[in-house]
Amino acid sequence: MGYDIERFVGYVNEGLLCSICRDVLEDPLQAPCEHAFCTACIHGWLVHHSNCPEDRQVIDVSLLRPLYRYMKNDLNRLQLHCRNREYGCEMVCSLESIDRHERECEYSQIPCSNAGCSVQVERRHLDGHLAVCEFRSRECPNGCGYTILSAEDTQHNCVAELRTELELLRSEMICRVEEAKHEMESRLDSQRRHMVQKESILQNEIEELKSQMSRVMSDVRSLMAAERQHRQELEQAELEKREL
């Protein structure tokens, strides 16, 4: 939608009016047939049509172009009232600068910045409203450190608030202790399983060493028996030699 023509001071050229909404062009685009439209208006039109609303020539979004520079300059030089005129703003400025003015206009209706407050006030009265807004917050004057809303002044109880916070802290501490306990138990259990596994491996190695020692001792006894047998044979041979 374009700018309401009633806001403008003096004559507005017909060529600067949107061919769809018939208001003064806002963010204008021009078709090859040189008819001009507000961007929002022509985009909405082309959703359901494929031609120019003025002369019915076929057009497409890709064929739309910015307004001619001389027309853009004429458009920007138009003088109009601030949209906050009904609230008391008497500013008249060029279309080129109207957006900047309205963003900063003291008569603009803006929402209260306090959470929960739905009031809208003029920018120039915002500070006064914030000073009395029932949703404004401030630190408790009794020194408990809590931020309270003005609407909660009568219900605020420092002792109760601090007791509630203490209970929350206690609950949080218990949860953290339990978490630390579970984590420690988990670590100890893991280390215990690791030690049992190591003990089993060492036990197996000891059994293997015992088996190896048993085999070695058996071999040693066999060697000693063979040596005694060999000695006896030598002594027998020596006796037979002497007899001969």
TrEMBL record:
<dbReference type="InterPro" id="IPR001841">
    <property type="entry name" value="Znf_RING"/>
</dbReference>
<dbReference type="Pfam" id="PF13923">
    <property type="entry name" value="zf-C3HC4_2"/>
</dbReference>
<feature type="coiled-coil region">
    <location>
        <begin position="192"/>
        <end position="243"/>
    </location>
</feature>
<keyword id="KW-0863">Zinc-finger</keyword>
<protein>
    <submittedName>
        <fullName>RNF41 ligase</fullName>
    </submittedName>
</protein>
<feature type="domain" description="RING-type">
    <location>
        <begin position="18"/>
        <end position="56"/>
    </location>
</feature>
<dbReference type="InterPro" id="IPR017907">
    <property type="entry name" value="Znf_RING_CS"/>
</dbReference>
<dbReference type="Pfam" id="PF02176">
    <property type="entry name" value="zf-TRAF"/>
</dbReference>
<feature type="zinc finger region" description="TRAF-type">
    <location>
        <begin position="101"/>
        <end position="144"/>
    </location>
</feature>
<keyword id="KW-0436">Ligase</keyword>
<dbReference type="InterPro" id="IPR001293">
    <property type="entry name" value="Znf_TRAF"/>
</dbReference>
<dbReference type="GO" id="GO:0016874">
    <property type="term" value="F:ligase activity"/>
</dbReference>
<dbReference type="GO" id="GO:0043122">
    <property type="term" value="P:regulation of canonical NF-kappaB signal transduction"/>
</dbReference>
<feature type="domain" description="TRAF-type">
    <location>
        <begin position="101"/>
        <end position="144"/>
    </location>
</feature>
<dbReference type="GO" id="GO:0008270">
    <property type="term" value="F:zinc ion binding"/>
</dbReference>
<keyword id="KW-0479">Metal-binding</keyword>
<dbReference type="InterPro" id="IPR013083">
    <property type="entry name" value="Znf_RING/FYVE/PHD"/>
</dbReference>
<keyword id="KW-0862">Zinc</keyword>
<keyword id="KW-0175">Coiled coil</keyword>
